[in-house]
User: What shape does this take?
Amino acid sequence: MQAPKLTPPQADALVDELAAALEEMVARSCADMAPLWLDATRSARALIGDDAVPELGFVPSPRFMALSKGARSRYRALAAWRHAVLWQRAHVSVADAEFHDAMEVVYFTAYPDNAPPYSWSQSAAKAPGVERFESPTTLKNHAKEGCWHSVDALLRRKAALLARQDWESELRSRLLRPATRRSLRELLKLESHPHWER
Amino acid sequence: MDEMTLRRWALGTLPSQERRDVSRWLVRCTDPALPALLHGILQDARDEQADAVLRRRGPLWTRLADAWQQLIDDSTAFLSSGQAAIALAEAGGPPPPPLQLAADRLHVSVPSGVRFALYVTDDNGRAETLCGPEESTGDRVVGVPRGLGARATFWLVWGAQLPVGEPLDVVGSARGQGASVFAVRQVEP
Assistant: This one.
């Protein structure tokens, strides 16, 4: 049986959406999010079809490969969530202005350290914008609420896509899957939820 | 695609349309080596940027750092902050020493993007990490821990090869990794 495929215009539009969100994510967090997201979504991106490029097309320099930090698997979920939030505009669905702003400050503000924890979550007192909140603790608590609402929006979006039963929607839902895995709960310190992916 | 173009993407130096073309290629590429390659390119670019920041800081900062290192290397006795100020003034100030001790605070001045770490050794030579290794985000003030003894020495080390996020044996391994070292000794009032 032939594997389902996107039409060229569908694939082109999807690649462009993902590329735009990738650039926005790097600008609004840190550079290491790019390789982490690429790692988290590799199998889903392979389903884009004829548009997928299975090989680099050149031999990577050993010098660069030696400099790689290696897998930081627990942060792949963070990259996947950040990308999905921007791709699906899930931050807009956080209705409470304080929760929304706090999430933006902690998770969607450039983080020059570009090292774990890859966000202002452990240095909230130094986050640009912390002065808008009563205290760093308030900022972190509100950010957690904002994150939860964004994850909830992503889960609902994924369920809606799966209900459509066409291949493009299925592929889009698979691209969202790494953003809603249970490992994210630990990273963002969120409560359990019955729809967490395993 | 080639590594040079990926590097320019990582550094954000591509024009917007070319940048989008590379972003699209990244989305489409499913080679398992790509994430590690991009990590390596980013790391290499960061190291180079940190070196460039030091060079941009200008000859004075570099010259002072060199002078400090030579003073520390050549001298068996460390300088007090007062002596340091005199030495720096003679070196052609106005002096911006990267580490200044004032009462119970340390003023650390390391250019943004440069990797650095701050340590203290107490009267008995025991070392404690005060911050880092990490990339500087600009000048900062660090509180001096209590109970160090009157002759504690504060060590600022910086260099592109310092392993960010990993503890470092104070001076020996820092120098082993090509780092510059700057020290200020606390003296009895």
